[in-house]
Each structure stands twice: as structure tokens, then as C-alpha cells.
Amino acid sequence: MIDDLIDAVIDREGNYSHHPADRGGATRWGITEAVARANGYTGDMRHFAREAAAAIYRRIYWHRPRFDQVATRAPAIAAELFDTGVNMGPAVAVAFLQRALNALNRGARDYADVLLDGRIGAQTLAALDGFLAHRAPAGETVLLKAIEALQGERYLSLAERRPANEAFLYGWLANRLG
Description:
Elements: H1 2-13, E1 16-17, E2 27-28, E3 31-32, H2 33-38, H3 50-63, H4 67-71, H5 75-88, H6 90-103, H7 122-135, H8 139-161, H9 166-176
Antiparallel strand pairs: 1-2, 2-3
């Protein structure tokens, strides 16, 4: 699963980019120069290897935030968290999941609220298990819609707060939601 997700992100992000409105600066394969440097890369970003990008995606955007643990329970949710985490940071993606789980637990009758800490731990996994148990078979689809709604709202807010982000809004909405 993760190999396909990584290939899709790399294909979507493209090769080398250095858009003047992008605060992330130079990127290749969707990996910013800062992330590449933090992971030991010292060369020109134009030459950053696809394999190095894939390794970073696997380690930092899949295993470290524990999206692999979500994938065993809800593969579509894990795929969305991975993609959102690549674009906004894993903690933001997890916070979307946590907020959605809290809002969908029917006043904590189905499972306890989780702390909004941006980390997947035992509490968040237990809430996900509780949600899926109470809302099967359509639960994963509904939870995915809630996460995507939060993601879409964040994109709009980013463009409203910083007009330079309007250059990216259409692409974010077209390529990152649904």
C-alpha cells in the first residue's frame, strides 16, 4: 500500500519546483529543501534522488506518525492521512482525524473523546476502533469525508490569510481532496 501511495505523491508533486510564492522554497519530488537537509542531503535540490524522497516519505510521513497502524484498520483513512501529512504536516493530518473522531462519537457514548495532540497513540487508535465498530460498514467513508472537509477548510483559510497562497488553492482543492 505505502509504495503505491508514495509513487502517487511523487507523481503528483512532480520533479523540481521553486515557486516564488511557496514558502517551502525549492522542492523535488515534493520534498522541501529543509526536509532534505534535515535528512542529510547536502546537494543541489535539482539532483535530489527519487529514491531518497521515497525513503523520507516512508519514514517521516508513514511510519513515524503511525499511519501504518491506521492502515490495518482503515486503509482509505490512512491513505488520506498520508497525503494530508505530506502537504500539511503529519500532526495536522492527525489532528483532523482526532477532531473528526471526537465530533462523531455521539457525545462520547460510542467511545471516549481523544486528546487533540496531533499524535496517533493508543487513545486515538481505540477511538478509531470504536468508531469503526459502531459505524460499519459506511463509517470509513463518512470519517474520510469529515477529514477532507477539515482539510478543505484549512486550504481556504490559508488562501484567505495569505493572498500569495491563492496561487496554490485551485491545485490543492483539485488534487488533494476526494
